[in-house]
């Protein structure tokens, strides 16, 4: 009976892990709280450093650019490579929507 429970628990964990690993975060637009919650080995202090670096230097062009942030090294980047996405387009939905407004004749 114990073996069956262990097998069932192992199976459930194996099915749940890909779901947890599938969550991705855009490091060019996410806030510090989201970064800290989404990335392994990144707490709020490092997440705030990522946001500060991004605000001072512009968007990240690739995942490896995270190494320019103090306290983030290759191991942290490698551990999170699958969870990180780079989106360079503006995240402001109002910019995209402004082109959809109907023309108002004057």
Automatic annotation (TrEMBL):
Gene3D superfamilies: AF1531-like domain. Residues 1-21 form the signal peptide. Residues 34-53, 64-83 form the Helix-hairpin-helix DNA-binding motif class domain. Keywords: Cytoplasm, Signal. SMART domains: HhH1. NCBIfam families: competence protein ComEA helix-hairpin-helix repeat region. This is Helix-hairpin-helix domain-containing protein. It comes from Dokdonella soli.
């Amino acid at each position: 009976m114990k073996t069956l429970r262990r097998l069932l628990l192992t199976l459930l964990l194996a099915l749940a892990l890909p779901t947890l690993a599938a969550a991705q975060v855009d490091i060019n637009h996410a806030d510090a709280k989201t970064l800290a919650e989404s990335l392994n080995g990144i707490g709020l202090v490092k997440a705030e450093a990522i946001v500060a670096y991004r605000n001072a230097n512009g968007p990240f062009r690739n995942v490896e650019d995270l190494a320019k942030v103090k306290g983030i090294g290759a191991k942290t980047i490698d551990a999170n490579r699958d969870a990180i996405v780079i989106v360079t387009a503006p995240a402001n939905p109002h910019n995209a929507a402004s082109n959809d407004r109907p023309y108002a004749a004057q």
